[in-house]
């Protein structure tokens, strides 16, 4: 009779422990794998060659969740690794835990790859229950992305103007910039997002928070993982400030700073142009220079120009400009030789009439193809160090004269890209010196860039 009771109690105990074991296994399937690593295999910020880590410094802990472990003697865990060549999984670990604790220390640590595991529980009398379903997980090596610089393709700046014809291409430079997950092997990859930054004021402090974000389309990627080009959809972008965030497979992301932000604006508020090139002045009246220098045309000349346009209206653009001219004069006369430099500078009021063409693809976008310009202002003509050289090393006293001048001019700027342009310029300058009226026309050709 006692033997029958014992058998009954034993059978009930086995049933009970198996029931709790299955409950523990089911619980482990409903939760994500928690794989803790030793410092030796923890996140690494830089790309480094694969090197063997000492076994004693390399371990991982695989954890799972279970309930009522007091009814479980121990667990058995089987881990398989995916073999891409054979397109199948192979068992690499099959061992028992030392107790009924819900973890297994893996030593040496698992390498980067795809894995799956399953768990079975031993009841209190040491009988192994059925295995749970397979649970897949991946191990990624951590490469912290670094975004060092970037530029917008059409204007090589940090600003996109929706009104302008724009291909939406942005090139990012840095380190550990891998292909996105969809175009990679799924083990080493980088996610790229553009996050709209919202700035709210709380008292006197500005609080920056991330708003909407989206994933751009990858266009080009360098094999050294230091440069990647992607395209953004301008039609779906809101006006505001965006930051580029690169996140690796392990969750490490690039540092976020103001230098990594892209400003999206509807219209360019101001223009700042810088240009430089060649000009050849021609003296129109007062024959003093021709008498002493022997010519009215001086081809050894250069010019530079800057224009600031802060006011934009439908009738045209208004602003200020600065023009600088430099001419070297020399001539070999019968009795003497002469040389000197003419330096001129003018501050102008500028009017520009821009000419745009509409995009055939998107009528809201337009391209600036040309600007017609009128300008005029006041400045100075500086005759610097004009000297007559006679035989026997006899030189005249150097002539230096600074005189007030006035100029009017016109220019045509033809845009090659949204920012790069060529310019044809012509100025008439007049200066009243003590012993001559100096009038000169300065035609020139330049190349410039608009900021």
What does this entry look like structurally?
With 451 residues, this protein is mainly beta. Helix content is 8%, strand content 55%. The chain contains two helices and 26 strands. The strands form five sheets. The protein has an eight-stranded antiparallel beta barrel. Strand 11 and strand 12 (205-214) form a beta hairpin.
Q: Percent of residues in helical segments?
A: under 10%
Succession of helices and strands:
HEEEEEEEEEEEEEEEEEEHEEEEEEEE
Structural class: mainly beta
Q: Which regions contain 5 or more consecutive residues with pLDDT less than 50?
A: 5-33, 36-56, 203-208
Number of helices: 2
Secondary-structure topology with pairs:
Blueprint: H1 2-29, E1 34-37, E2 60-63, E3 74-83, E4 88-96, E5 103-106, E6 113-122, E7 135-139, E8 146-152, E9 159-161, E10 169-175, E11 190-202, E12 205-214, E13 217-221, E14 227-231, E15 240-248, E16 261-265, E17 271-279, E18 282-285, H2 288-293, E19 301-313, E20 316-332, E21 337-358, E22 366-390, E23 394-395, E24 399-415, E25 420-432, E26 437-450
Parallel strand pairs: 9-16
Antiparallel strand pairs: 1-2, 2-5, 3-4, 3-6, 6-7, 8-10, 10-14, 11-12, 11-15, 13-14, 15-16, 17-19, 17-26, 18-26, 19-20, 20-21, 21-22, 22-23, 22-24, 24-25, 25-26
Summarize the structure.
The chain is mainly beta and 451 residues long.
Keywords:
451 residues; mainly beta; eight-stranded antiparallel barrel; five-stranded mixed sheet; 2 helices; 8% helix; 55% strand
């Amino acid at each position: 009779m006692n033997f029958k009771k014992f058998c009954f109690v034993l059978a009930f105990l086995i049933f009970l422990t198996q029931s709790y074991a299955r409950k523990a296994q089911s619980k482990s399937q409903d939760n994500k794998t928690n794989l803790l690593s030793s410092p030796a295999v923890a996140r690494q910020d830089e790309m480094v060659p694969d090197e063997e880590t000492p076994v004693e410094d390399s371990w991982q802990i695989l954890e799972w969740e279970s309930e009522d472990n007091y009814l479980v003697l121990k667990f058995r865990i089987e881990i398989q690794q995916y073999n891409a060549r054979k397109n199948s999984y192979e068992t690499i670990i099959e061992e028992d835990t030392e107790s009924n604790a819900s973890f297994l220390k893996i030593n040496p640590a698992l390498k980067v790859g795809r894995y799956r595991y399953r768990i079975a529980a031993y009841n209190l009398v040491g009988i192994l229950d059925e295995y749970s379903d397979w649970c897949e997980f991946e191990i990624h090596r951590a490469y912290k992305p670094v975004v060092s610089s970037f530029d917008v393709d059409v204007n090589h700046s940090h600003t996109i103007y929706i009104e302008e014809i724009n291909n939406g291409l942005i090139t990012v430079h840095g380190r550990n910039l891998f292909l996105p997950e969809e175009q990679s092997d799924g083990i080493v990859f980088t996610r790229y997002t553009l996050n709209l930054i919202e700035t709210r004021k709380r008292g006197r402090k500005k609080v920056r928070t991330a708003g909407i974000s989206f994933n751009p389309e990858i266009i080009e990627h360098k094999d050294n993982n230091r440069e990647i080009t992607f395209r953004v959809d301008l039609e779906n972008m809101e006006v505001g400030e965006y930051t580029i965030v690169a996140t690796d497979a392990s969750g490490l992301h690039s540092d976020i700073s103001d230098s990594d932000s892209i400003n999206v604006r509807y219209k360019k508020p101001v223009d700042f142009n810088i240009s430089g090139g060649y000009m050849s002045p021609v003296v129109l009246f007062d024959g003093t220079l021709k008498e002493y220098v022997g010519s009215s045309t001086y081809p050894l000349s250069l010019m530079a120009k800057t224009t600031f346009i802060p006011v934009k209206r439908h009738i045209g653009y208004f602003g200020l400009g600065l023009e600088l001219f430099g001419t070297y004069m020399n001539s070999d006369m019968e009795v003497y030789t002469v040389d000197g430099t003419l330096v001129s500078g003018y501050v102008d009021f500028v009017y520009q009439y821009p000419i745009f063409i509409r995009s055939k693809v998107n009528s809201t976008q337009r391209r600036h193809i040309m600007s017609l310009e009128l300008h005029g202002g006041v400045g100075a003509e500086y005759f610097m160090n004009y000297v007559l050289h006679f035989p026997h090393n006899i030189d005249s006293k150097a002539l230096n004269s600074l005189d007030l001048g006035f100029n009017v001019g016109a220019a045509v700027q033809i845009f090659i890209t949204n920012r790069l342009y060529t310019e044809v310029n012509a100025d008439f300058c007049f200066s009243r010196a003590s012993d001559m009226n100096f009038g000169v026309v300065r035609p020139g050709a330049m190349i410039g860039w608009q900021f």
